[in-house]
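Q: Structure tokens for this one, please.
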Amino acid sequence: MHYNTIMRFILLVLDSVGIGAAPDAGLYEDEGANTLGHIAQTVGGLHLPIMQSMGLGNIPHLLPYGIPIKGVDPVQRPLAAYGAMQELSEGKDTTTGHWEMTGILLDKGFKLFPHDYPSFPPELISEFERLTGRRVIGNKAASGIEIINELGPEQVNSGSWIVYTSGDSVFQIAAHEQVIPLAELYSGCAIARKLCNPLRIGRVIARPYIGNAGSFTRTDNRQDFSYPLPERMILDILYDRGINVVTVGKIDDIFNHKSINRAYHVENTKSAMECLIEAISEFKDGLIFANFIDFDMKYGHRRDPAGYAASLEDTDRFLKDFVSRLKDDDILVITADHGNDPTFRGSDHTREYVPLIVHAKALTGKNLGIRKGFFDIAQSAMSFFNLPRNERGVSFI
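A: Here is the predicted structure, written as tokens:
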């Protein structure tokens, strides 16, 4: 079976841009969370004319407890198809959300750990110390900036690892780049990844930083080491059939660098925007899979609704230019992987519906409703490329 060699399926994930508490939010203590709705209320309204014209403001009316997005009203004739998606896998983390988009269902979520010291079991920490030859400090849940400010001076003086977790299934390792070289940090993460696999820990994350006490800053040399993929997913299928798979942002890390023809690996949204423009200039066909990370990393976890709002408006301005560069037979899917309501309690992700906007010539104004499972995206991509049905999901094409 062949596919049209001039077709592109572009999937853009706005990391953590949820649109209202999911039906099972209570299981995650997230009842009442609404990332977009609450940000808009807090800042006095959002100005997102491009996404509004595509139907973003129409989506809350589809949800049982939807909150209107202040400043982003519904439009009578949306220029794109619009809807919402409910995650069916267990969890509310980056890996789970992105994997479900490619057709994977996690019936059993990744393991979470206590927030207070000690978060990780002693046998895991002692074996990590033995194999790396360095001591561990931290071993609790924390915001990355906070724990670096707290333990950075000790780490610089002792040469220890700062190890911490969060509300996600993560084993994070922070180290000053001038104390522990990046190569050693990445090697330590690879060791940790093997040790974490039996515990079903979703990601091991390298968190390098620089600077002096009182002015430490994290660098863009972060790397994620994901849990092994449990089954074949759409990237494998497309890659095996000779269809280009191109990733932008941290997508390559999330999928363990598997079944990817070209990865534009960057760790901030500005660079991802630049690389996404470059990707559509270079690749005239295939799947282009991008992630804009700043919403989650810089503003959601740090509980900064004003910064989050500014980043949304910057993305909307980017989309105005980006959409003008697309071909008539391109499909652009805009969605999110989970929520991270910066007005909500704590500093963790929130279990929410995610928006679904599909910009395509044949789908103008279509109400896609509430989709049961993020894997409707995978099924739609299979349909788009004229490939056999995937195991899960319903195509919206």
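A few notes: The domain at 122-226 is CATH 3.30.70.1250 (Alpha-Beta Plaits). The longest helix spans residues 305-324.
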